[in-house]
Amino acid sequence: MVLEAGIRNQRIDSMREVSGALPSGGVFVPFGNVVKRFSWAPDAAIEARRGIGSVDSLGFDTGPESHSCTVGYLLQGAQVVAATLLTGAADDDDFIQWTADKAGHEGNEITVTVVAGTADADGISVIDRDIRFETDATLTCDEAVALLNANTDVAALITCATTAATDAASFVQVAGIATLSAGESTPLAEAFNRDCDGQIEARTIVQRELHCDGGESDKGMRTYVVIEGAKPASARIPGDPGQAGPIEVEIIYTAEKGRQYELSQPSVATVLYVASTESGDNAATITVQDDDGTQEEIVVSGTGSVVFQSIDACELASELLGTLTVQEGTSAGATLAVIRGSNDYANAEGDLGIPVLPTSGSRTATLTGTYEKFLGDTVEYEGSDLAYDINSSELSVDNSVEALPRGQTRKQRIVEGNRVVQINATVMGENEYQTQVTRHLKADAGDIVWTMTNNVFSLWGAVLTDPGDKSVEEGAAYMQFDNTFTGTSITLA
Predict the structure, then answer these.
(1) Domain boundaries 378-492, corresponding CATH code
(2) Structural domain boundaries of the chain?
(3) What are 458's strand-pairing partners?
């Protein structure tokens, strides 16, 4: 027997959802190359059914589900991920490339339009997230690049890359300037950022644990946890100069749904048979995927034609009433997977299984980029050191996430509220307490910038909301105290 344990082969990755579903071109990405811990806490809101005439419960009922998930991993690489759009002219292959490289726009669209009119000093204006060329209705690639690079407001949003046109002198027409969508943001960036409506991005998180032995045919088994509609309720980035290793960040998610699955591996390479305990589910479809990414859609109840030597995911196209089984070869074959329908959940929604790769999606196995270490970082307040000595620091966000029950589903609606972004720092110095208390009593507002190797976190308009206590004791060689700064906004770069 192989026990479930942290020393087993683990894969923990996630994909950002779009309107509650995985996008066709989405990418499963790991949280980090080194994940320190993963935990999932489900709560089915079980209540005992009682009545008069008995001291014992008469049964049990389930209510709206609550799901929380915590992921801790070593911080690595840039957290603001650039994305590009190649925008072509209407009648030829000329294009300009824009790159979204600033925080606050992950998952949002930045619209670039050309309007007729008299140019201003820079020939360009920024209205909300719209970037407008106030010049002729047509302009060359070189002219457009010059306008983008000349305007400081635009530079705060995007970087215009070099022109890449077959004929740089030809015109980029109005129809050719389209929409720039920022690319996949990282889970940590999503925890701190909001979209233009003040909302947080949601993710589907999948944890896989691989057992080389065991399973129905003793050819190995894989256990999965699938978390859907997960929004980052809070996140923390601690910094300790006495720590030799990289920074270990933590994200706590509140999710709509969580389920666990088991996949036994086939005893031999085989086709698959799928069936449901409810005949009304016949003609539904399930997609099965192996380790190489090969997929087959199989009709319930029926037998596929692709020979599978391994199974790594199986996902229903829609929820079923009955319990679905995936079996080796025929109805008499070993059961490799079970996906439960609504009949198993007091007629609430059924399960969909383990997500397969979307149509044009992919999976990133490992991340690139160096690890972040606090030793050597700078934490500055208004351009100067935050304190004489910083013995520890922690940047955190609380998104005031709530789970609200709703009708016809055990999934609760996950709603974000106010954002509270803070930096906590343990500091010391010759007259540090006097300096910090003055900031607190005057409610001075200043910008705090934490500069790492690959990232810059800027807490704007930060006020020292809690200066900690001044406490001196007999025999103490130095005095440390904790400061808590609360900001009005934050950007990542």
Answers:
(1) 2.40.30.200
(2) 9-45+63-77+189-363, 83-181, 378-492
(3) 449, 491
